[in-house]
Specification:
The chain is an alpha+beta fold. The chain has four helices and twelve strands, in the order H-E-E-H-H-E-E-E-E-E-E-E-H-E-E-E. Helix content is 15%, strand content 19%.
Length: 280
C-alpha cells in the first residue's frame, strides 16, 4: 500500500468482487463474518481538511469459522426496459372528446377506423388454402414428408428433385428459418436468405435465415435470370401470404412437375439483387 500526502489510499484486494459495506465489516451476523481476508479495499471518508484515511486491518477471530464464497467477477447488469401501457384519462367526458377529435379527423380525410393491420385480398391466404397448409403441417408431424429427394450435383451442389408426379399449385414446402433484421446479416456468407418483409429502409427489412435452422426449402435452386432458355426451368414460385396475421413464405408448384425433375424458382422474384448470371 502506498500513499502520497493526504491523497486517497487503497489496499489491493485479492479477488475481484463488489466492495463490502462498512457495516458488514464492523458487525458480524450470527453466522460469522462473510469474508476470506482480513484486509478490505475500504476508504473511511473524513472532512476535506483531513483527506481520506484507510481503515485499520480487522484482526481475524480464530473462534469464528469464516464462510468461503465462490470467486466471481464484477458484473453490472443493466435492467431491461419494459414497454408501458398507455394511461387513459380518468374523466369519461374528456375521453369522449378525445375520440370525437379522432372521428372528426378520420371523417374529414375519408378514412375508416381500424385498430389492427389489414391485408389486401391478394395477400391473404383464403381459408380453404389455410386448411390445406395446415394439412401439410399435420402430415409432416406424422412423418409424412413431401415426395422430394435431396441429390448432390457436382456442378449445382445440393438440389431437390420431385420423387413423384406433382400437380400445378401443389404446396411444396414453407420457407422457414431464423427471422432477423437484414442489417444484422449484411455481411453473412450464407446464400440462402429469403426476404420476409421488404422495407424502404433496409435496416427495417426482415429476412429468413435457414443457415442454422431450416428445412428442405433451403436446397431448392434458383434459375438464371439472365438466360431466357434457363428461365424456362422454373417450376416453382415463391409467394408471401398473410396467414392468420403472420407473414409466411410458401414454395408452390407453378406447373405440373414430373418425377425426377429438379425444382427451381426465381431468387429475384421481388428484388433484382441476387447474382444469378452464373447459374446453370
Amino acid at each position: 500500500m502506498a500513499a502520497t500526502g493526504l491523497s486517497t489510499m487503497m489496499v489491493q484486494r485479492r479477488r475481484t468482487r463488489a466492495l463490502k459495506r462498512y457495516s458488514d465489516i464492523l458487525f458480524k451476523d450470527q453466522d460469522g463474518l462473510d469474508c476470506d481476508d482480513i484486509y478490505y479495499p475500504l476508504l473511511f471518508r473524513c472532512p476535506k481538511a483531513l483527506g481520506s484515511v484507510p481503515l485499520a486491518p480487522i484482526p481475524r477471530n480464530p473462534n469464528i469459522t469464516l464462510k468461503r464464497e465462490r470467486a466471481s467477477g464484477l458484473a453490472i447488469s443493466k435492467k431491461k426496459r419494459k414497454l408501458l401501457a398507455f394511461n387513459p384519462t380518468e374523466d369519461p367526458q374528456r375521453r369522449l372528446e378525445q375520440m370525437a377529435s379522432l372521428a372528426t379527423a378520420l371523417k374529414a380525410s375519408g378514412t375508416e377506423y381500424i385498430d389492427e393491420l389489414t391485408y389486401m385480398p391478394a395477400m391473404v391466404l383464403p381459408n380453404e388454402d389455410i386448411e390445406t397448409l395446415n394439412l401439410c403441417k399435420r402430415m409432416m408431424e406424422k412423418g409424412e414428408c413431401p415426395p422430394l429427394m435431396v441429390v448432390y450435383d457436382p456442378v449445382e451442389g445440393f438440389t431437390v428433385q420431385a420423387d413423384r408426379y406433382m400437380k400445378d399449385l401443389t404446396i411444396i414446402t414453407e420457407y422457414v428459418g431464423d427471422v432477423d433484421y437484414l442489417k444484422n446479416r449484411e455481411h453473412d456468407d450464407g446464400d440462402s436468405m429469403m426476404t420476409l418483409l421488404h422495407a424502404s429502409n433496409p435496416s427495417k427489412s426482415l429476412v429468413i435465415c435457414p443457415d442454422k435452422h431450416g428445412n428442405i426449402a433451403r436446397f431448392v435452386n434458383g434459375i438464371n435470370n439472365f438466360s431466357p432458355i434457363r428461365r424456362k426451368k422454373q417450376n416453382v414460385k415463391c409467394v408471401s401470404y398473410d396467414v392468420n396475421g403472420e407473414c409466411r413464405v410458401l414454395l408452390i408448384a407453378n406447373r405440373d412437375i414430373r418425377k425426377g425433375e429438379n425444382l427451381y424458382y426465381d431468387y429475384n422474384g421481388y428484388e433484382n439483387e441476387y447474382p444469378t448470371e452464373y447459374f446453370v
